Amino acid sequence: MQDRIELAVSTVVFSLRPHPETGELTLWLPLVRRIREPYEGRWALPGGPLAPEENLVESARATLQRTTGLTPRHLEQLYAFGDVDRSHSADAAGHARVVSIVYWALVGEDEDAEAVDGENVEWFPVDEIAEEAEPLAFDHGVILDYALRRLRAKVTYSPIAHAFLPEEFPLAQLRRVYEAVLNRALDPSNFRRQILAQGSVEDTGRRQTGTAHRPPKLYRSAPGRSRYALTIQETDQ
Amino acid sequence: MQDRIELAVSTVVFSLRPHPETGELTLWLPLVRRIREPYEGRWALPGGPLAPEENLVESARATLQRTTGLTPRHLEQLYAFGDVDRSHSADAAGHARVVSIVYWALVGEDEDAEAVDGENVEWFPVDEIAEEAEPLAFDHGVILDYALRRLRAKVTYSPIAHAFLPEEFPLAQLRRVYEAVLNRALDPSNFRRQILAQGSVEDTGRRQTGTAHRPPKLYRSAPGRSRYALTIQETDQ
């Protein structure tokens, strides 16, 4: 039985970047290599102990700034993980029990351009993490799975996917965000019809410049639409 | 600046009971009178420090059992509240900073029948709490407002309202749950049409016994419907 309970704040940061092999847009996140026990040498979510003078969200923001140089617009509390045995190290006893309050950040395309890697920080495509020989430190693999599940659910009932995009975007770009998050191809015309029917985006009246012969229309988030229901249909291809 | 950060788990417990004046079904919750500083004598959400050997949800369950005698089926984590100045007492310094991980419980009609009051525990209609001369202890008024907002939002996009009901229920009873949660009258035929269109309930083939000349049909939760969108329409009356 442990006497001390410590509090940490960690953050799951999702950004969309091309997959290193396929070139398709895919989910990436930054991890930090642990330089001390427990789990020395393993990858972990960015985070750290809650400082006495910091609010929870300030702690998440400070960690993000320190590890990635980013201050994402979309940062929200995800869940508190506090099982008694979650922070046990495989090799060493005597570490305090840690309860982690986890935030998640979604990084916009325009924001991601400003990302800088900190020391011992590396970005990974989400699907590569599961293939790593060594699991993430602590229960961070469980936390990452939970964050992915929540993200995949939430894009179907809220406009949260817009957080990955700049203010104005063609519908095809929004679809690619959904495809990256859900990790599967979607039927373009079904997607277009459903999104427009939901009223979560509105036509800006402008078209994308400097592109094709018939440049696509630009859309933006419609104000006041915080909830909707999307029945995601897969493409037949 | 404080050095120590303590962890507490508190729970917002919602149940539906008749309003003491109108007799209409309305939201109630149990509060605990504080018997020591800070905020001695004020009403607070049931809760307490996280014990070293307890998981978070176990702590919430133990508090509920101790204060209300209940072990509700529906208990989930709501949010962690941890602002630096949230636990300051109005009158005394020197208390540690407390981060509270808050759960919420929805008590089914059948469960509520087993509620027993603990010492210094009292149930209040939600709308009476705002009228109390003294605000709740700590930031518990803020937490209660947050829980109410979340509950009112969540009934429109998930079948969470079913948690207040026994396994089988007439649609009119489900409507009264929505009316109590949203604190307004709903148009019966619109409500019926929308709920049936969502597919979140299914006909049991049975009717309520021992009631009227034409006893109402009994419905139950349809399996696998965890999300839907309900456009709540008010009655014209």
Automatic annotation (TrEMBL), chains A, B:
InterPro entries: NUDIX_hydrolase-like_dom_sf, NUDIX_hydrolase_dom, WH-like_DNA-bd_sf, WH_DNA-bd_sf, WHD_NrtR. CDD domains: NUDIX_NadM_like. Residues 198-220 are annotated as: Disordered. Residues 4-148 form the Nudix hydrolase domain. Coiled coil: none annotated. It comes from the Bacteria. This is NUDIX domain-containing protein. It comes from Nesterenkonia sedimenti.
